[in-house]
Amino acid sequence: MEEEEISNGLYTAVKPFYCVCKILGQESYSYSKAKNNKIKIVRGCVHTTYSIVWAIFFVVALAYTLRSVHNCDYDVLLDKTLIASYIYYIATFAASVVSLIHGAVFSGRKHSQILSRLSLVDSVLFRPGEERGVNRKIMFTSIAEIVIVLMYQLALSFYYISTNTQEACFTNVLLSLECLITYSNITIVLRYCNLVRVMQERFKRINKHLSSYDNVSCIINCVTNGNRMQGHSKCFGDRNAVNLCVSSRNSRSINATEFRSLRITFSELNHVIRLINEDYGISVLAATIWILVTMVLMVFFTLQEAEYGAYSGIGYLFSSLCLLTKLSSSCHTAGSEIGVSKFLVQKLLLDSTFQPKDSEELKMLALQLNSTTTEYSAYGFFILNLQFLCSVIGVIISYIVIIVQIK
């Protein structure tokens, strides 16, 4: 990827997950600039073929896994455990296969559209030195997440191998495949959360820009300082101090052009959110279903393993819960930034120092924000937020109570 295509260092924020997803075949589109259309077509075919090869490998690995589980000694695996294992492996492998096929065939080019539009927005929102610090912070966080998840999955696999005494049919090959496919699915979710965080930083920048327009705190500070200078005891009793604040407020030269620029920026960011939901919706839906299936089945497996003194299922249950919490909280926090923008605009509407033309643009901005819903969804099936997380946790707790009562 070259900086000429995506300006302002946006590549810095997405580079870690771009490289990992490129290795795992989840990123089928190259952001590097091709010299001509022929090179671009050849490069696209190579990346698509590489992703399809990974998908075929996972399909073959799924068939091998199911066959190995089927050939297990039925004295070792009960019928319920066997069926639960089938469901778990099918959901796990299907999540990666769906993501690979969807990204390679249908939505690969939308990735560059998302970053190109974000690059245009950054050129308006950030000054030359500000964007670099924001993107580097996101990059370091991404690298830490990649390393921590990899080490955790390896440690969990080694622990399962060392404690796997009853289920001899689960060989090291099967456990290695499970570790690889699980890491691939986790990468899908973390890459999505990384892009959502990039969006959140842009909305936070806009809110910071709107806060600089806020005149309420300016009035309070100016009136207080003015009263101190003139020896008054009441904060709001000095009209000269208010006039001083208004003059200071008007000296910032806020005009309709700035508010119109914010309207255009909000429109671009909302378009990017729509592209994200379309581009990553299928992958996030498949990954979320995999997380939910894993959480339910790991409760069942943990209760089964407790009879033999093994508790490796708790590790998988904990990682699934953390992953779902990360996904839900990231989308909820990013989506709530638009609510902060609405609040700040409503405060600005109370300011009577704007010119009529400026007030009209500000009203149009408020109307645009009120008619816009910023939500991240799993392809429209459900909204990813904290309410969704609470619902899932409630279902899991109810399931645990029912299983314990049955036992």
TrEMBL record:
Q: Which UniProt keywords apply?
A: Cell membrane, Membrane, Receptor, Transducer, Transmembrane, Transmembrane helix
- What membrane topology was assigned to this protein in its record? Multi-pass membrane protein
Subcellular localization: Cell membrane
Q: What InterPro entries has UniProt attached to this entry?
A: 7TM_chemorcpt
Query: What residue ranges are annotated as transmembrane?
Result: 41-66, 86-107, 138-161, 173-193, 280-303, 379-404
Q: Name one GO cellular component term.
A: axon
**Which BP terms from GO are recorded?**
chemosensory behavior; male courtship behavior; sensory perception of taste; signal transduction
Name the domain of life: Eukaryota
Q: What function does this protein fulfil?
A: Gustatory receptor which mediates acceptance or avoidance behavior, depending on its substrates.
The similarity comment for this entry is: Belongs to the insect chemoreceptor superfamily. Gustatory receptor (GR) family.
State what protein this is by name. Gustatory receptor
- Organism equals Cryptotermes secundus
